[in-house]
Amino acid sequence: KAGVTQTPRYLIKTRGQQVTLSCSPISGHRSVSWYQQTPGQGLQFLFEYFSETQRNKGNFPGRFSGRQFSNSRSEMNVSTLELGDSALYLCASSLSLQGPNSPLHFGNGTRLTVT
Amino acid sequence: ELKVEQNPLFLSMQEGKNYTIYCNYSTTSDRLYWYRQDPGKSLESLFVLLSNGAVKQEGRLMASLDTKARLSTLHITAAVHDLSATYFCAVLEYGNKLVFGAGTILRVKS
After folding, report:
1. Which chain B residues contact residue A95 at CB under 8 A?
2. Which three-class secondary structure state does DSSP give residue B39?
3. In this structure, what DSSP letter does residue A26 have?
4. Measured between alpha carbons, how far is B80 from B83 in angstroms, rounded to an integer?
5. Looking at the complex, does the CB of residue A60 fall below 8 Å from at least one CB of chain B?
6. Is residue A4 within 8 Å of A106, Cβ to Cβ?
7. Which residues in chain B are closer than 8 Å to A101, comparing Cβ atoms?
């Protein structure tokens, strides 16, 4: 069974640009969550999608947005990039909605560098 | 707001020694997870702890959960170099939102 797939693996962007990251969950998983990992702030929750609906959102500015498609694939978009957006962005998928009895399965992440 | 604290943040161990990583959290939750992360890699699930008194073991790692004390421990027995990594605990806040601790960097020296 294929794991969570994130593309691209690496991105270099310039301040002010926008970026779109993609995540394909494990087959059959309908919940997709996004996390940002930085050395200073650690792992922080961005948002979660289930059946194409955003269920939860973390404490990030509106420049961070996402969506989920009918096949459960998800994208996140960051507009007007800032240097502080440089991070590893991790996508995680899960079978269930109300608190997983199995862990979230994480992808390998997209390393975004903003210059 | 749920807060998760791990300690120590850095742990340098000799091979063969035992040690414990602690994870405290601030509000009620009955699901706690331990993950491992190798440099430049993603998060690998180690344990899911679902209820008070839960204990799980895999190889040289054993995790336990005390929901009344809001405390989980990850015990390392007879450490080996391959265990060197960063270990995170994460607590389920709601839905599928996890709140992570800061992580414990473990270095096992031979």
Report:
1. none
2. coil
3. P
4. 6
5. no
6. yes
7. 48, 50
Model pLDDT for residues B11-22, shown as the tens digit of each residue: 999 999 999 999
**Strands A5-7 and A42-50, sheet pairing:** unpaired
**What residue of B is the nearest CA neighbor of A55?**
B95
Residue of chain A whose Cα is closest to the Cα of B35: A103
Q: How far apart are CA B52 and CA B45, in angstroms?
A: 20
Kindly calculate the radius of gyration of chain B based on its CA atoms and give it in whole angstroms.
Answer: 13
Instruction: Kindly state whether A13 is in contact with chain B, defined as any CB-CB distance less than 8 angstroms.
Output: no
Instruction: Assign A86 to helix, strand or coil.
Output: coil
Chain B: residues touching A (Cβ < 8 Å): 31, 33, 35, 41-45, 48, 50, 88, 90, 92, 94-103
Instruction: Assign A100 a pLDDT band (cuts: 50, 70, 90).
Output: low
A70 touches A2 (CB < 8 A): no
What are the tens digits of pLDDT across the range B68-107? 999 999 999 999 999 999 999 999 888 778 999 999 999 9
Q: Is A106 on the interface with B (CB under 8 A)?
A: yes
Tell me, yes or no, if A104 comes closer than 8 A to chain B by beta carbon: yes
